[in-house]
Design brief:
Elements (H helix, E strand, L loop, with lengths): L6 E3 L2 E3 L4 H8 L8 E5 L5 H12 L4 H4 L4 H4 L14 H7 L5 E4 L8 H5 L3 E6 L2 H14 L9 H10 L7 H11 L5 E5 H6 L1 H11 L6 H10 L2 H6 L35 H14 L12
Parallel strand pairs: 3-4, 3-5, 5-6
Antiparallel strand pairs: 1-2
Helix pairs in contact: 2-12
Bound molecules: adenosine-3'-5'-diphosphate.
The site of adenosine-3'-5'-diphosphate has 21 residues, from helix 2, helix 7 and helix 13.
Length: 290
């Protein structure tokens, strides 16, 4: 079953309600100083967004509290039913420098982003934890079909029949793109293991320096525990008929390795076998626990 406000583009289901809007996205005019944050769904976008916002505001928490995370930086392709206009239109009206978000596969990104040589930060998360997070997210968000059972959702994830399409194509496509474009490719698990080191990578990529004190402040403000309690970051401001946090909170576990509590031995074997085939021939590797 699909959702009425989605569109299929190149075999991937997108939360873009019309062809007209999709064409506008394709014709989107990027600016050279745009920063693009790209991830597959449930790979740590909200977390990375908060880190980048803190970096850009020199660790000023009050400035990052100016709006909720869904309102602070628009998506290229998402239309939130509770907002007055598509995110794209909000992006068009934003003053520079902008930070824009996307869950699109690299080959679907508006060409102008490449032409303008925009800096892009991509965050990837290991497939199993990403799948688990996506499963729980699908349960709590009313805009997606109910996943029914974990095993059924596993099958859909493996075949790419989920919102934004195949995880495998997504992480591989962006991995290949980084050899040709200004892309900083980061991993959720690295951010969890050593947030400071990953923040230093972001700073270098953004050609920015911050004091050790400010960096420590960023690590604290963007920790799972602090973000979970932050109403401007924990997504509780999204209307409850869209996000039902009582079914599963958006800030759920925030830990690598939670997949172990979800996969049966049989499903794990099946998944691993399929994974090997899909990821054969790539230099891209993931940690599935820390
Ligand atoms: P879990 O469901 O595994 O807990 P996205 O923002 O891309 O939708 O990703 C959501 C996932 O990132 C959720 O994973 C969420 O808990 C996790 N997350 C959000 N903030 C985090 C933080 N500060 N540290 C670690 N994980 C975080």
């Amino acid at each position: 079953s699909t959702v009425s406000n989605t569109l299929e583009v190149d075999g991937a289901l997108l939360p873009t309600p019309s062809r007209e809007l999709w064409e506008k996205i394709c014709n989107f005019q990027a600016r050279p100083d745009d920063l693009i944050l790209a991830t597959y769904p449930k790979s740590g976008m909200t977390w990375t967004q908060e880190i980048l916002d803190m970096i850009q505001n020199d660790g000023d928490v009050a400035k990052c509290q100016r709006a909720t995370s869904t309102d602070r930086h628009p998506f290229l392709e998402v239309v939130f039913p509770y907002k007055r206009k598509p995110d794209l239109e909000i992006a068009l009206e934003m003053p520079s420098p902008r930070m824009l978000k996307t869950h699109l596969q690299s080959h679907l990104v508006p060409p102008s982003v490449w032409k303008q040589n925009c800096k892009i930060i991509y965050v990837a998360r290991n497939a199993k934890d990403c799948l688990v997070s996506f499963y729980h997210f699908s349960r709590m968000i009313s805009l997606l079909p109910d996943p029914q059972s974990f095993d059924k959702f596993c099958e859909k994830f493996m075949s790419g029949e989920v919102l934004y399409g195949s995880w495998y194509d997504h992480v591989k496509g962006w991995w290949a793109a980084k050899y040709q474009h200004r892309i900083l490719y980061l991993f959720y698990e690295d951010m969890k293991k050593n947030p400071k080191r990953e923040i230093h990578k972001m700073l270098e990529f953004l050609e920015k320096t911050l004091s050790e004190d400010v960096i420590n402040k960023i690590v604290h403000h963007t920790s799972f525990e602090v973000m979970k309690e932050n109403p401007m970051a924990n997504q509780t401001a999204v209307p409850s008929n869209i996000y039902n946090h009582t079914i599963s909170p958006f800030m759920r576990k925030g830990m690598p390795g939670d997949w172990k509590y979800h996969f049966t031995v049989a499903m794990n074997e099946k998944f691993d076998e399929h994974y090997k085939k899909k990821m054969a021939g790539t230099t891209l590797t993931f940690c599935t626990e820390i």
